[in-house]
Amino acid sequence: MSNDDGSSQQNSRAIEELLAGTKTGILHISWYASWLFDRSKRGISRALGIDDVGNNKRNYRGNLDNTNMIDSTSEVLQVVGVGYGRTGTYSLGLALNQLGLPTLHTQHLYETPEILDMWTEQVFNPAIEKHEISMGKPDFDVIASHGYRATVDLPMALYFEQIYERYPEDCKFILTTRDTSEEWFNSFRLLATSISHTTNMAGHLVSYMYQLASYWRWLLATVDQNSDILSVPIGMPLPPLDKRRAIESYEEHNRRVREVIPADRLLEYNVKQGWQPLCDFLEVENCPIERPFPKTNSALSIKAQTVTAMVAYFTILICITVPIANYAFEKVTGQKLMSWIKTKVKSYKQYSIRKKKR
Q1: To 5 degrees, how large is the angle CA 119–CA 124–CA 125?
Q2: Which of 67, 117, 257, 314 is the most exposed place for a label (fewest CB within 10 A)?
Q3: Is the pLDDT of residue 139 over 80?
Q4: What SS3 state is found at 116?
Q5: Spatial contact of 220 and 245, defined as CB atoms under 8 Å apart
Q6: What does the pLDDT read at residue 271?
């Protein structure tokens, strides 16, 4: 293959990743708009004395390819990805969904408020309030009660021992890894920087973003073994990860998983291996090997996703606040806000011209 062909393929892949990240960012903000509308509707209903306008408990059973079904009628977690974030967990989650297992990835944790509330109340907040790194007591049945039969990514990956004790006969475990620890750290550091900046900016404006900001403080403190991170106020920048401690945490976690989980219940897996090892482990008869294995959430995609979500978020915020501000200003002053601003700008320009002529 010529250099031009290789360069063309790289450019094509970069464009695909940018588009994928942009799409995910738009989906996040569309969910936020839906959430905001739902909260407003419920607030109005309560103010008017109307009964609850519907049950917002989500039972996730959609977006599954039933042709390769793993039996997911069980009421417990059947598969748990126990690899650290940035080891292909998002791609694995998409693959499990395609195989018939409703899968929760932490990137979509906010979409099920009851689950995010459980983590916040039982794990994140107690650690932050005490300024001590602690694991709390998460209720895994809450996740299963919403229809999920698999989870991937942190924080669930950290609880492999407790999950194994809770589901000793039912659950299988998948340890996703990167080619090298150095490769994992560089990717995880980029994610941590992007997401922590985003949650910091919006944490005081949106309740679930505040919860996610708390999650990132707890998670980075746990991975970095640095309790000082728990004391950083929401909105303030977090200290950079210590490379040595983070890599030690990653490697020790993987070692403990191999030590604790029986070999017949554990698949150590790199998403580059594709469908076959995954299907063999999960005993999927109709393995979709002819279908491209999901490959997403690259570093470039993460950047595009973060920028898109923030731009869209502040656009929505402006669209909401400007009309409200204009209405309030007109009620108080009798003038339209934009007309008043134009008048002031015009007056300033005239003043500047007169000043120059002196």
Answers
A1: 110
A2: 67
A3: yes
A4: helix
A5: no
A6: 96
